Amino acid sequence: MEKFLTAFGMVKAEGSDDRTLYMRGTGTQHHIHVTRKADKQRFVGASIEVAGYDDLVELAAKPGSSPVRESTEPGGGHEVSMTMPDGIGIRAVWGRRKAEPLPDRDPFVMNNIRDKNRVNAAVRQPVAPCTIARLGHFVLHVKDHDASMAWLNERFNFLPSDYFVPPGEEGPVVGTFVRLDLGERLVDHHFMLVLQSDWVGVHHSAFEVTDMDAVMSSHDYLLQQGYSLDVGVGRHLLGSQIFDYWKDPFGFRIEHYTDGDVVDHRHRPTRFNGTASDTTQWGNRPPLEFFR
Question: How far from the centroid of its chain's Cα atoms is residue 76's Cα?
């Protein structure tokens, strides 16, 4: 896993040992991906950083929550552990020590038909691992969409960005793209998608990279290294990201993306009732069973 994630663009973080692998990006998060040795592969859950210690106290008072306790993960801080209705673990974290940012190149400036922004400068991008900036979003498959959304909304200040409904129908809602509620501040179109399914787990986790050249050069590099391409490259419809999906050595889907939408409090959700293939505007389209 360390070999793959390094090729994918992450860096081994302080605190890793022969049982647990912590990987980081170029940003200030101590780690953004955790792998633990076990008898079989499975998705354990996700961590959400909250704004203050008081948020942890409030979450600890909810039914099924753990008390506030010191984190045992590298970087320290405090945490509250919770479990979604389908058994997916959600850990609220506050006070984890920040890491020093890692160097990264500046995004390449693009010339379009109207605006010539790159003057007397050329693009020179080798085929090589890209640099991962951060975890941008993840997608959860759940048995009961409404119960899972009610659980999340009771605990966090999330807002819907867009909805999935069955193909060709107007309802019911079977998937919700979720974003943070930070008022006038710009936020990603989504950091989570909750999607009803006949199986429970993580559909994929997505990591933001510098620009499209990073996506494409890394795509070629991972192919050269013999890793398993899943779907890509293409541009999503909902969120607009340029995407590239891969499979890690244990079969989990992992995504590079760039150029995603950002929104503020004025954004209003729409309803999407197409198929998985319709979620791609251009490029490699996923098969119909992509979200099953």
Answer: 22
pLDDT digits (tens, 9 = 90+) for 169-204: 999 999 999 999 999 999 999 999 999 999 999 999
The H-or-E segment that residue 164 falls in is strand 158-164
Token duo for residue 131: 């640099």
Q: Where are the alpha helices (DSSP H) in 156-270?
A: 212-224
| β-strand pairing of 45-49 with 89-94 | parallel
pLDDT of 289 over the 80 cut = no
CA 14 from chain centre, in angstroms, equals 22
What's the token pair of residue 258?
């760039």
For 154, counting Cβ atoms within 10 Å of its Cβ (0-12 exposed, 13-18 middle, 19+ buried), the class is: exposed
Closest listed residue to residue 239, CA positions, set 136, 144, 141: 136
Q: Which amino acid is at 230?
A: D
